[in-house]
């Protein structure tokens, strides 16, 4: 299993950070591997809502379906799946003196022949994780009042 986790200090209160992170469509703004993330259906975002996400990593484009499987105070969990992988994204948001501390964790399990590329994918996920953390910090901070 590939695990990548980043901790971010941002200048918005936890409800603002959680509100932004709850809409998984926003990953297309800050995750450098995500090309598109489109929600299925309409209405409130509650557990069971899903998104079709198109990602490009190591020159390969793939599509996953992500579902919000957990939403509790200060914690979100999304489950993504396609034929080659299962992915769990977890965001934990806590109050911090200057706003919030966001801990974002991705757990990726490769299936079938894709498992053979796990080592290479892990290295690329680390790079993407660094760029994504910087972009997510910037996206959340842009929500802070002027």
Topology (SSEs and partners):
Layout: E1 2-10, H1 14-22, H2 27-30, E2 34-39, E3 50-57, E4 60-72, E5 75-81, E6 85-96, E7 99-110, H3 118-141
InterPro entries: Polyketide_cyclase/dehydratase, START-like_dom_sf
Protein name: Polyketide cyclase/dehydrase/lipid transport protein
Please estimate the helix content.
25-40%
Name of the CATH first level = Alpha Beta
Identify the overall geometry.
globular
What structural class do helix, strand and pairing data support? alpha+beta
Task: Estimate the mean pLDDT confidence.
Answer: 91
Do you know the CATH architecture?
A: 2-Layer Sandwich
Note the run of SSEs as H and E.
Answer: EHHEEEEEEH
Q: Uncertain spans, ≥5 residues at pLDDT below 50?
A: none
N→C terminal distance = 41 Å
Mind describing the biggest β-sheet? 7 strands, antiparallel
Strand content: over 45%
| Strand tally | 7
DSSP helix count? Answer: 3
What's the arrangement of strands in the largest beta sheet? 1-7-6-5-4-3-2
Total number of domains? 1
CATH homology superfamily name? START domain
Query: Radius of gyration over alpha carbons?
Result: 15 Å
**CATH domain topology:** Alpha-D-Glucose-1,6-Bisphosphate, Chain A, domain 4
Please give a quick description of this structure:
The chain is 25% helix and 46% strand.
């Amino acid at each position: 299993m590939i695990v990548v986790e980043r901790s971010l200090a941002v200048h918005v209160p936890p409800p603002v950070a959680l509100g932004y992170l709850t809409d998984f469509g926003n990953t297309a703004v800050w995750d450098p591997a995500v090309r598109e993330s489109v929600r299925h259906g309409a209405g409130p975002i509650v557990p069971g809502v899903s998104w079709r996400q198109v990602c490009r990593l190591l020159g390969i484009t793939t599509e996953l379906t992500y579902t919000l499987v957990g939403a509790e105070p200060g914690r979100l969990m999304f489950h993504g799946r396609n034929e080659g992988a299962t992915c769990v994204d977890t965001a934990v948001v806590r109050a911090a003196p200057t706003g919030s501390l966001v801990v974002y964790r991705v757990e990726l399990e490769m299936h079938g022949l894709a498992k053979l590329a796990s080592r290479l994918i892990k290295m690329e996920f680390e790079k993407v994780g660094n760029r994504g953390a910087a972009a997510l910090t910037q996206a959340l901070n842009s929500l802070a009042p002027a």
